[in-house]
Amino acid sequence: MKQTNVLLIVGADSSIGQALAARLRSGGKPVLETTRRRETLTETRIFLDLTQEKEIENWNPPAQIETAYLCAAVTSLAQCNQDSMQSAEVNVRNTISLARNLISRGTFVVFLSTNQVYDGSIPFRKADDRVCPQNEYGRQKAEAEKHLLALGNLVSIARFTKVLNHNVPLFQRWIQELRNNRPIHPFLDMVMAPVPLFFAVDVLSRLAELRLPGIIQVSGEQDITYDRVAYYITRQIGANLELVKPIKSKEAGLHPEFVPLHTTLDTTQLRVQLGLETPNVWSVIDLIVSKNY
Ligand SMILES: NC(=O)c1ccc[n+]([C@@H]2O[C@H](COP(=O)([O-])OP(=O)(O)OC[C@H]3O[C@@H](n4cnc5c(N)ncnc54)[C@H](OP(=O)(O)O)[C@@H]3O)[C@@H](O)[C@H]2O)c1
To answer: What is the pLDDT of residue 292?
Structure first.
């Protein structure tokens, strides 16, 4: 790739990475993607495996990278728990090593983080509140954040709550079941503060334009329980409300560390520094219903 001012997406097969690549390209930006799927390599899709420590340390990108988005991660909470050593290698050690490598070349690095760096005991955590993760995924993200922030002004941390596209398998399944007059069992004690994927991508794109260092939090304006979402969807599609049979997450065998009481984050900096306001949480659900019904 001969161009300069290239935008690099590390982990371009992630749901956010894919949408981001499409958005940046549609804006005319030169985009370089990394993947670990060898069968999909092209000149603008190159191989990078975040388990390969030595390769990451010595990696020489084939273009001058203006901004790099670090989207690749072990994102399954269960997987992080089960294999904390290997997931930490990807989510912490090699992510930091890659960021260090890129920063030494003058690249601005955007790291995608999560509300799970907090324990969920209180709503609307401020960006500078001390982190207090309660599960391994959150601990790894918090650890990576700490080391990345210490690398200086070429690092931006974008903390997201739940990022939803229209094709969320759980909600698609619910709609299918309701259509077939079958019951669904949403959690009544699990919450989310969703942000739409298109908005997450807006934020990431803007961060690179502004090269804004520090932490930016991106969150829906309120927490909503999964059973409220289920009732909302049921009403929107005109199905029978009695088909919604809420259950407690414990009944489904979920450990409390995966079920925070609150997930919202304070978004003052998003408004003040980026001039962006997260869309209403129900508009995210409307989008899902409209695309699937
Ligand atoms: N989605 C959300 O709601 C949300 C919320 C907060 C923060 N985030 C953060 O945003 C980022 C993207 O999230 P996402 O949900 O879009 O992710 P995702 O769809 O779960 O995808 C994760 C990607 O990481 C790649 N990956 C995993 N291990 C790798 C390795 N060793 N080397 C190279 N690539 C590897 C995977 O590659 P394969 O496709 O080949 O398996 C996959 O494409 C993550 O850092 C996540 O923690 C996401």
So the answer is: 85
| Ligand 1 site, CB within 6 A | 11, 13-17, 36-37, 49-51, 71-75, 90, 112, 114, 160, 162-163
> Measured between alpha carbons, how far apart are the two ends of the chain, in Å?
42
Any domain includes 236: no
φ and ψ at 53, to 5 degrees? Answer: -55, -50
- Going by alpha carbons, the residue nearest to atom 19 of ligand 1 is 14
Q: Give the domain extent around 90.
A: 6-164+196-219+264-279
Integer Cα distance of 11 and 126 in angstroms: 28
Atom of ligand 1 nearest to the CA of 12: 43
CATH code assigned at 109: 3.40.50.720
Pairing verdict, β 65-70 and 6-10: parallel
Report the domain count for the chain.
1
Confidence at residue 132, expressed as pLDDT on a 0 to 100 scale: 98
pTM over the 0.85 mark: yes
**H-only helix segments in 66-216:** 77-82, 84-88, 94-103, 136-149, 169-179, 197-210
**Neighbour-count burial of 93, counting CB atoms closer than 10 A to its CB (0-12 exposed, 13-18 middle, 19+ buried):** middle
Ligand 1, atom 42: nearest CA belongs to which residue? Answer: 14
> Which stretches in the chain have pLDDT values below 70?
1-2
Query: What confidence score (pLDDT) does residue 119 get?
Result: 97
Q: How far apart are alpha carbons 119 and 112 in whole angstroms?
A: 18
Q: Ligand 1 mean position to 237 CA, how many Å? A: 32
